[in-house]
């Protein structure tokens, strides 16, 4: 288990991270962590490792792309002084290219995505000891689907940056692909983007596995 | 893993089971299973054992005691024809003795609790192949607390009935006691009864462990 | 133009037809016809053929499958005594097989779909002069997608029944396929099922073309 | 078809244009274009000319008169840098003279209307390649009705300015007059101002015809 | 002043009478009489003739036509045992012919209107001492307007029946015509049907004048 | 009739004047004048003297006392440039002395009331041609009631100032006293302060009589 | 202290008793006893005599008069089997005579009040060991006020019946009169009927004093 | 009785004091003092000592700890110029240590609590004649409970400061302990913190006893 006693773990991302978290900062009781994988991660850490006292914070914001993250990075990430930072971004960067293709101002293409994300990691590395980079994903099993192809490109960028900076890497698309062998995507997300609770379990498991969580701890 | 392909697993109980499930029957997408341990169990079964296709149904109802369960047993349990049935009841039977002590009509004392619960199991055993009995619990670490003492009595009754009928037994109080060594009860439930997500993880883990869930399944 | 002065045209179907129509019968002003293709068809008939005085009625109901239609057929179709009847059903018959695959009670498989739909047409033909059968559709351009394959089966059934009974046939999937050559499906429907206004125009155009609507009428 | 690939088409006007569009700028999915003729125009362009990728924007605002347009022209029109601009204004300029005749501050008389509208066109012409001027209208078939007479004056001013500046001209009153031969005005608008969907079809058709839309395009 | 001490005065009609009155019977304080002419009549009777103690009751119902009145006549009129009855009906009988011309089930044509209204008066005359018949009206000054012509027909029927049975007759159209010489109809009613407070004053004055109200009573 | 063609009549006061008027300025259609005597005055002026075109404005504000009026006098009275100004204030100045007697900051005693009101009239007289001063009132027939005695003091101050400055004077208490001979106060106002519609008729009549309104004008 | 261990005390009355109590029966936590004197009585009994375990039930209903009590007496009083019954009724019986004087159906005059109340006590005495009769009251210090005179008549009837049947008698008017020497009625109730918390303290004190409550009990 | 005629008594604290008081300052009618012990204290002072005219003000704020009080002390306490000040704070200072133990920023430990509270008293003593310090409390009868132990520490600090500065001291924990001998804590507060009305009576009694309130005053 890589997390140590008393550490602070902060998640940032888009609606998949947000899930109706509290404002301005998502932490504390009463649903403050939202209804998605962040809340699940926190619940498992608290229930299974109560002695560690891990503090989980959620600053995901619905609709955000990587440029939006950059614009609030100082306040929502660096000022929070986390020990661990987890980033999952890219869904909206890609989706707008497919659902509102004519409104190009709303698109973030691969080059800008890569440059922006790398700059964020570069800036954060000296300040935050542990960074986890999670890929965006698209719940479509057809690898030739145009949006899936594009999302995979963004996932590859995340992987490349994780390797460059030695960040923990979580390939959410791979994690979902296992399940998609048995289930049609609609079971995990009606719109192929926003997961059901089962879909969030896939994310939480992938994250917890990456940090060395022991599922069978007494 | 004891559940088999295509089986139907039904949960009944009080508000801890209910958690805003859909009416009249809690099943399907869009939060139909509520926000508690039932939804977590379903999400883990779907995400980790997608090939089994387990159908989970939630018919918990807030405020119910064992007498209320009896009154809706035919419609909400037997008519649903589950392969697995999980029952967790007793919180309100006990709680009313402590929060509205002067309104004795609202109390279900141990004798009536035991008689009623046993009759339900007796009636159900020939029809449902697998029964899981979960104890009620009280999130209070002081074993001399009056309400904790009383709740433990009810838990012992559940255990006795489980043994009599060969039902799977889940001791939720024991599961919580492990966590309460490190955490004050308020972290798991403000009122010592309704769990936070972390508190529901304790329940979901205890249930999944009882049915032989493999946490490390690929 | 096949519709004649003073005729009554009734649409039945699921949420794609419903679109928040008035209850119990959708007709009249103030959004009574809903916000989808039915309202568009009515608006074009009124604006372009005001001299015909066509009365449009919407009895689509969200969530319905062909079995639900059968259960309300007498009251919602036959009792209304329409001159024209348009039916578009099948989305939910198929979708439940893919989004809640373990709840088999909610599925309507091809055989039951065909039998039920044919019985409805058989029963109605002597009473309603003109029947239009519209296929269900799935806004997925990948013809090998499992749900698209299944939906195409249902479309083929609709076509077969239309031919058997000499009903007007509208192939909505074909109409969408034209547009999907240029647009990713998310532009027409986030969940690949519920169309945007542009998606409803595709349906309205296909219907109006089928009945001989003259777009260039002065 | 006069619109070319990738062009941006912006509509400005009053409540007839607004129709509950999104704020601050009406564009994108989920009803952002409102429920009126603008949304219809967009839906037809997307469904019939998907290959053109026309971007439609709605900045109509309920209650506006031409003076209100002037006050937000820089931000809502020029800063948006459209390729096509469509303006339909004048209803409130006239209506206030008839429904609150004693509150003269709220009236915009013909001279001010003409001066202001001309100044807007003059200012915009060098910046926006294509301008469409649509007349205001009053759904009253009696040409001697006082408010109809007055509205016709404003329509004539629009026509004059369109001719002066070579703008495309859409005579909405003429388009409605055709329909009013067969239908009493209440069928198209309860208050003779805010159209039903059929009334919006009249506007959308008139606009689309003006820009060379091919209704029979395959 | 024709009303005498302690008498009960009941108004029935459509939305112009209703004006959000209390249900099931509109009488008493706190807006129970609605916001229209009935409330004004009551307020003037109470304020100017407090010594008479007139009890005013409102059973107008929005959307009603004369057939709807007939269906609730026993309960809402006769069972109330009024000393005075005022009826104003016909707006919806006519309006539906003009706003939803294709839905003929919703129209009440002159013959049915006359027959039904006469039967109601015939049935009531032996039981209620004083009947006031008010014409329906249309706030359109153009006497050649199709809906105004039709409404005038209904007004003439009311007048004829009033004369036949010796009922007090209030010609609301005539009362409005005086005001319409100076004001455009939109000042009195946006949709030419539902009056502003000023429009309700015209009705209240006409009614009060008909019953001999002394405006200058000290 | 003292009001002349095209004049603007502005009312200021407390909740009795306000009655849910529109903000920031109460004028125009759709209930903008509130539900009290101001709306009635406007409705009678419009219905009986349509040829005069009187513009009525309501700037009453619930809870106000004379000090509150002074604080918004420039903006809400003088900047509006009325031809006629009607002021009715004092209820809250007095009431707070009786319902919250211990919170003396909320009381406005006679001396401050007189000084402040006189200063407002002094300041306004050169700018507004016609001023109407209405007394506050208390709907209590017992002249020895402590609050009635106090309210009468304030009424006397209003009368004195009206005489000093030659303003039109409306004694609302006297107008109510006539009605209170026949009716218990609860019929006109449950709390003896906020009038029913009948109570507002008393105010409107007193005002209209003061300005020479001809009730029998054809 | 007259109440004994384990007894049930039921209150019935009108809005002054009701105060938003729970439905159908007001008992238990979370405001079930309403916000008035009943809740205060319960709170003092629980806080000062916790060892007695008195069960308090509230079945007051807003708007009720003595006839309404009679109509629900079996279900709401006798079926509840209280040991103590407290009745306070009469406000609405009287008030309707003063606020809606013309609607005589709504009045309950002294004779009917007395007959009905006596019949209820007669019927209940054999079944309920202890009956408390509280007078209705009117928060008006002027003993010559018409409604106060009438309310005093009803209070005298209550006193007479209490004496006839040996019921405990609580003269709420007398209790209020003490306070009204120092405070104007508006401080205790804006409408002279519905008490502020201070007004409810007067009622609770009078009740508790009548049953021998010891305020200085340790 | 220590309070004297015309004095102002201000309460500050957390949610137990707040209880939905009015904003920004809680005073006046209509629930402005909230629903807890402050409102009860005011109601008893008004009902039993109406001649004193005590003005009660509530500035409690839910969620506050002693540091939050300090931050609004000038505006909410000193600027209000009370004659009496009552402070009850500490619940949240302690509770956050037990319900969100990992978020240490939210905890106020004993040293900071003592320093801050003493500084507030020191600063206030010269300006406010009478200070009452009430301990925080925890409704748990087990004196070895971890949170009860911690709360008792804070209570001891309050006692020490009260003695140092000669403030009136109210030991709320002691007052509750008496009741907890007979009742389980859940009867007084579901979460052991927010009292029921009975729990607020305990607080109000303790406060009133401390200021010499005579419960048997006529």
From TrEMBL, chains A, B, C, D, E, F, G, H:
<feature type="domain" description="SGNH hydrolase-type esterase">
    <location>
        <begin position="11"/>
        <end position="200"/>
    </location>
</feature>
<keyword id="KW-0378">Hydrolase</keyword>
<dbReference type="InterPro" id="IPR013830">
    <property type="entry name" value="SGNH_hydro"/>
</dbReference>
<dbReference type="GO" id="GO:0004622">
    <property type="term" value="F:phosphatidylcholine lysophospholipase activity"/>
</dbReference>
<dbReference type="InterPro" id="IPR036514">
    <property type="entry name" value="SGNH_hydro_sf"/>
</dbReference>
<dbReference type="Pfam" id="PF13472">
    <property type="entry name" value="Lipase_GDSL_2"/>
</dbReference>
<protein>
    <submittedName>
        <fullName>SGNH/GDSL hydrolase family protein</fullName>
    </submittedName>
</protein>
<dbReference type="InterPro" id="IPR051532">
    <property type="entry name" value="Ester_Hydrolysis_Enzymes"/>
</dbReference>
